[in-house]
Amino acid sequence: MLNRQILLPVTRRLPQLLFLLILTMTGCGSMPQLVRNLGKSDVDFVMDVHAKQQKQMLMDLTRKLYVRNPWQLKKSSGMTIDARMAQIFGTYNTIEIPSLVFAELNGVTGIDAILLSFDENFQGDRVFAAMVGLTEMLRRSYNHQQEFFILDSLNEQALYNSARNIEIFVWRLYQRRDSKGELFLLSNRISDSGYDISFDRLFSKMVMVQDMMALIVADRTNRSITKVVQSVAQLAFLPVP
């Protein structure tokens, strides 16, 4: 008879072993959700929640920026906010994510697209450029995944760097101006009812999610994170491998 101490750990791993067997035959994308869940640890479920939160916040930010900068949308004839959202995010519940390389942005994406949104020579939709860049940068920190499994491995440094890049983006959004002294993109506003800090709150949550993900991955892999201590105003965007 097999030793019970040997048999128990194997039995506990049966759901994961079954998942790996199914994965080799079908691939994750075609699996029902209940089957995909067999390949997840508790940490993977937490990471899934954070990734979904970040996607929703990116969608909220896109809509808010277009509401504050409606003239940017008009630079593309017949374009709507919903159409832009579909270009960037695809269908909300889908696992597959659309490519974020567009001819109207000169084929650049990620950090280069963010930089394009603050380039005075760029005549296109600055909200689209900024959100394509920000979304692609964050996707890279997640290895272009929206769902995580036991065998998946993220880079804690990439997650940390992406959090700092959000802070750098926010500083540029609030401070960068064209040669006429006008902000490239509007965000927070002062009205008779007071100062609107909804953008501040949203960005703070986005940074918090990335920092939390970085800590989770660092703890899972027992690796350390190299911290950046320079002023945000002096920083260039950090690499997200």
Give structural notes.
The chain has 241 residues and is an all-alpha fold. The chain has one domain. Helices cover 55% and strands 2% of the residues. It has ten helices and two strands; from the N terminus they run αααααααααββα. The protein has a two-stranded antiparallel ribbon with strand order 1-2. Helix 4 packs antiparallel against helix 8, helix 7 runs antiparallel to helix 8 and helix 9 packs antiparallel against helix 10. The protein is globular. The termini are far apart. About 12% of the residues have low confidence.
Radius of gyration: 21 Å
Number of discrete helical segments? 10
Query: In which range does the helix fraction lie?
Result: 55-70%
For the biggest sheet, the summary is: 2 strands, antiparallel
Shape: globular
Output the strand order for the largest sheet.
1-2
| Number of E strands | 2
Elements, N to C (H/E): HHHHHHHHHEEH
The amount of beta strand, in percent, is under 5%
What structural category arises from helix and sheet content? mainly alpha
What's the overall average pLDDT, rounded? 84
Total number of distinct structural domains? 1
Oligomer: single chain
Poorly predicted runs of 5 or more residues: 4-27, 34-39
Distance between the termini: 50 Å
Protein name: Lipoprotein
Organism: Vibrio ziniensis
